[in-house]
Amino acid sequence: MQLLRGAIRTYAWGSRVAIAEFTGRSSPTAHPEAELWLGAHPGDPARVEGPGGEQASLLDVIAADPEGELGHQVRARFGDVLPFLVKVLAADEPLSLQAHPSARQAMEGFDREDRSGLPVTSPVRNYRDRNHKPELLVALSDFEALAGFRPAAQSVELMRALAVADLEPYVALLTDQSDADGLRALFTTWITAPQPDLEALIAAVLEGAVGYLRSGAKQFSDEARTILELGERYPGDAGVLAALLLNRIGLKPGEGIFLPAGNLHSYLRGVAMEVMANSDNVLRGGLTPKHVDVPELLRVLDFDPAPEVRVPTRRDGIELVYETPAVEFAAAELTLDGPNLGHGVDAPARHEGPQILVCTEGSVTARAKSGEVRIDRGAAAWVAADDGPIRVEASVPSRLFRATVGL
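^ thats the sequence. predicted structure below, dont judge the formating
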């Protein structure tokens, strides 16, 4: 068991405070810190800390002993690669409207762009690896997101509540055919509309949102505020209209959402843990100055309504398990409080695979076969497959986010 030092990614939508304070560093930081990567993705691998404080890339550690670090089961299924990636995400501004490809789409897209000679580092490249990217997000603070297409009838109700005459022709697209076909037709119409037409429609929708809020109506007040915020930050962007079609979700700390392939989403604000398949493939659809490939986005999107993307949980002793269908990862939150304080507690046993532990509250001492490490809030640890099971102890109320392989 070794402490794990994450790699910080700086993006404009990040926070100058959240990740720094979470990891015990001074703030504000010089640049917005958006993500803390804790894994073995080649784009930014974390580093493990040795007994003398020396650090080595987790990629190199795994390559030196894949059987010991990953275990036989994981190697048999995924090869000599850690199949999941853990992140701490901090959003002060909305992220781009985006979706992730399926495994087949990712392999085909990566090979197609490779054959074209497009460098993996190119800003117009869609596929940076051959992996799909199902992901789980668990809120550490109050968190707001747009995720998954809402049933067409709900979007029609929202559009009519805004009382925007210019939206009426588009309502017919949602009411005259199946939900998936209507959502595809309407989203495609908006994302490919001429810019002057788009700007005129967005201006009318923003006026409608202002009027709705002034009326004192409550049903769609969150949606109206989100539309106004997006319209101010991204004027003339089709993503503002797409917000009319997506579920707007508010999460409390500990609540999570699971996003499978093809799910259109945008994280709006908050701090959260993420665990996902080990991929960096993103197809953007707006709310960003970055490359947007409309035909490729439309190819990967799933237009079937997803009225409920919140992930179910189950209790297993001190562990709250987030139940997802992913085979690359599994995630849980271990809580140490009350009668569990002051003495060692066995973490529920999992399979032989590796684990990444992140302390999100308090301070935890974790013990494995090779020894023990103290994991303070914002710190993380790597547990090799041949080093488990683990035992945890805390003297103050503490929480530990735990990611493993989902086999």
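The chain has three domains: 2-146+251-300, 151-244, 314-404.
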